[in-house]
UniProtKB/TrEMBL annotation:
This is GRAS family transcription factor. It holds the Pfam family GRAS. Residues 35-57 are annotated as: Disordered. Keywords: Nucleus, Transcription, Transcription regulation. It is found in: Nucleus. A motif (VHIID) lies at residues 174-178. The keyword Oxidoreductase does not apply. Signal peptide: none annotated. Residues 42-53 have a biased composition (Low complexity). One of its GO terms (cellular component) is nucleus. InterPro entries: TF_GRAS (IPR005202). It comes from the Eukaryota.
């Protein structure tokens, strides 16, 4: 295939041709080295074996140009050009390469789904895989690891809990609407604080609004653990999870279950 058909000048065409050839050479070399240490995977793609993570040199921003050209071809339904560009991107792209290769790899998947009208089917497949592979333990480890490397989130939890306790001091029915995406890691410390108050322990209702693609089984496990911890602390507690929203603008008062006698606080802390 003539790569120059999709380039704006000879310099760019020469670079892409050399880059593609270099990827293939690096890939074959990598496979040859691997074969001396372990069995070779017959399905390994040479374009994905370079493993380069070096920064992209200036003037080599080829991925965005090719992707835009491919997107334009998809929009114009130019099947011949689509096939050529998808082939070229597939040769150059790699999720393990440099920034340009990664950019090409991820957007190539999206363009392929668009060109083949398989986006919904692909989404359902990925969601199904996520349901099977994700668990509460894996989600907890991700959140805790993030908090370990970024203590600012924990600081936000402490400050937010302090503000809530101060604002709702003396109230007997508390309703916290949580639109964060921290998987309720903030609330055990609040439950402990409520359990040690000098006055009567208030009733706490927690409404968690989930707009991110969090597996339902994970949120169910979190809810059960929160209820168990609240019983241990002696705090009257209920939790309600609202999921499946595309945006917060879809929320209604009825969805949130707001009651007239509740003191309400809205919490939003993102990792």
């Amino acid at each position: 295939m003539d790569i120059s058909l999709f380039c704006t000048n000879n310099k760019e065409a020469n670079f892409l041709q050399q880059y593609s050839n270099q990827i293939k050479i690096n890939g074959l070399a990598a496979i040859d080295m691997q074969s001396t240490n372990q069995p070779q995977n017959s399905h390994t793609s040479t374009s994905r074996s370079s493993g380069s993570s070096e920064p992209c040199p200036a003037g080599t921003k080829w991925a965005s140009r090719l992707l835009m050209e491919c997107a334009r071809a998809v929009s114009e339904k130019d099947s011949s050009k689509i096939n050529h560009l998808l082939w070229m991107l597939n040769e150059l792209a790699s999720p393990y390469g440099d920034c340009e290769q990664k950019l090409a790899s991820y957007f190539l998947q999206a363009l392929f789904c668009k060109a083949t009208d398989s986006g919904l089917r692909c989404y359902k497949t990925l969601t199904s895989v996520a349901e099977k592979s994700h668990s509460f333990d894996s989600a907890r480890k991700l959140i805790l690891k993030f908090q370990e490397v970024s203590p600012w989130t924990t600081f936000g939890h402490v400050a937010s809990n302090g503000a809530i306790l101060e604002a709702l001091d003396g109230e007997t029915k508390l309703h916290i609407i949580d639109i964060s995406n921290t998987l309720c890691t903030q609330w055990p410390t609040l439950l402990e604080a409520l359990a040690t108050r000098n006055d009567e322990t208030p009733h706490l209702k927690l409404t968690v609004v989930v707009t991110a693609n969090i597996v339902k089984s994970v949120m169910k496990e979190i809810g059960q653990r929160m209820e168990k911890f609240a019983r241990l602390m002696g705090v009257p507690f209920e939790i309600n999870v609202i999921s499946g929203l595309n945006n917060l603008g879809e929320l209604t008062k009825e969805d949130l279950g707001v009651q007239e006698d509740e003191a309400i606080a809205v919490n939003c802390i993102g990792p």
